Amino acid sequence: MNDLVMHDVSVCFHLPHTVVQAVKHVSLTCRAGQITGLIGESGSGKSVLGMSVLGLLGPTAQITGSIGYRGRDMLALTEDEYRALRGSEIAFIPQNPRTAFDPLRKVGEQITEPLTARGMAKAEAQERMLTRLAELGFDDPRAVAASYSFELSGGMAQRALCALGTIQRPQWLIADEPTKGLDAILRQQVATIFRKLRREGVSMLMVTHDLHLAEALCDRIAVLRDGTIVEEGPAAELFARPQTAYMQMLLAARPDVLAAKRNEVAYGNA
Ligand SMILES: Nc1ncnc2c1ncn2[C@@H]1O[C@H](COP(=O)(O)OP(=O)(O)OP(=O)(O)O)[C@@H](O)[C@H]1O
Ligand SMILES: [Mg+2]
To answer: CATH homologous superfamily for 4-267?
Structure first.
């Protein structure tokens, strides 16, 4: 199977005056055909772990351990080997849509580029791009395709980025906060897309703060704290019976739970 098997992964950043250890001895199996959620508070190492899979961390990062995939160690690939896999076999949707698009080129052109670069006819690539934008909730995909990224709202840019990440129909998708900045309806739409992708056989690692998304979408969840996995298991079990005080704290800090508490205080519990 094409599982992603992280074994004893650690990541250090060597900065001029200090060393930051962002990920510490993480072992985690992300199963093919499933959605694995990576949750935890800000700075816990979620993005760093997700980016380490595709060699996206840059020269200051020192990574040890291994990430097995189809008989190879992802951490031992050369830059050329990473490039051959990125986007087509394993795609990454980065956390910040603003910096992911080139501001000088139209969004549609950037989404179709990987397809035409691999030999697809322009008209077919265009059609596929417009279909995917429509699936991601855009009423007027042509207008979005003809826009520059800075002309899109945060939510629109986020969805356009999902289109870019999934356009090559990768086997694996690593999505970093794909619902960030989206309102409830758009979050639903993005969740629907990910479900559809899973039905199509795409495996996913989903980095998210959005515990509702994690609960609704993920098969398994790993909880990161300060670079370490503190809890891991089937999503339904983890949400129903959190084992650690940290997970209980994350659940209690959900916006809806806090709002309900505020209402209780403001309006009583009648
Ligand atoms: N390029 C880098 N150089 C130095 N330190 C970094 C670098 N990238 C991340 N870090 C540090 O690694 C730790 C983990 O960062 P990471 O971005 O993975 O957190 P996160 O869990 O994704 O947080 P958030 O939910 O806010 O996105 C943080 O302390 C961060 O400051
Ligand atoms: Mg992050």
So the answer is: P-loop containing nucleotide triphosphate hydrolases (3.40.50.300)
